[in-house]
C-alpha cells in the first residue's frame, strides 16, 4: 500500500498530461465547417458575402469574392473560386501563395482535421472526408503553392445524377 501511495502523484501527473495532450490535439470532422470561412457548401450565392460572377465551368456557375485579398488565420490566400450547381455551392477552391503560406495553411488544416489520408508517396496530396464534405489538398511543387478543394458530397451526387441523365436519359440509382 505504501508502495502505491508513493507512485500516486506520478500517476496523477501522467493522467493530467495525457488529458491535456488529447484536448490540444482534438480534431473535428470537415462536415462541421462545411466550407471555408463564410463560404459554405450547399448554400446559394446570394447567402454569401459579396460574390462576383466569374464565368461557367461544366454546367456550373463560377464566382469569386469581390475582394481577392483575403487573410485567413494570419495566412494570405488568393484565388478563391466557388462553383455552384443548380443554385447550391458544389465546391470551392482556395489557392495559397508560394512558400510559407502554403505550409502554414496545410499545418492549420492538419491540426484542425487531423493528418489526413496521404494520396501520394511524396506527401503533396492529402484528403479529409466527412459524410457531407471532403477537403483535398494538393501542393504544386513547381510553383511551390497549394490548393484546397472543398466539395459538398450531396451536391456532387446531384451533379453526377444530372450528368448521368444527360448521357443516358434516366436517373442514376
Question: How are the secondary structure elements laid out?
Answer:
Layout: H1 2-24, H2 30-33, E1 35-36, E2 39-40, E3 51-57, E4 60-65, E5 70-72, E6 75-85, E7 88-96, H3 100-113, E8 117-118, E9 125-129, E10 133-140, E11 145-152, H4 153-168
Antiparallel strand pairs: 1-2, 3-4, 4-6, 5-6, 6-7, 7-11, 8-9, 9-10, 10-11
Describe what this molecule looks like in 3D.
It is a single chain. The chain has a single domain, classed as Protein Transport Mog1p, Chain A (3-Layer(aba) Sandwich). The protein has 4 helices and 11 strands; from the N terminus they run ααβββββββαββββα. It is of the alpha+beta class and 173 residues long. Strand 3 and strand 4 form a beta hairpin. The strands form 2 sheets. Strands 3, 4, 5, 6, 7, 8, 9, 10 and 11 form a 9-stranded antiparallel sheet that branches. A two-stranded antiparallel sheet has the order 1-2. About 10% of the residues have low confidence. The protein is globular, with a radius of gyration of 21 Å.
Summarize this entry quickly.
The chain is α+β, with helices and mostly antiparallel strands and 173 residues long. It has four helices and eleven strands. Strands 3, 4, 5, 6, 7, 8, 9, 10 and 11 form a nine-stranded antiparallel β-sheet that branches.
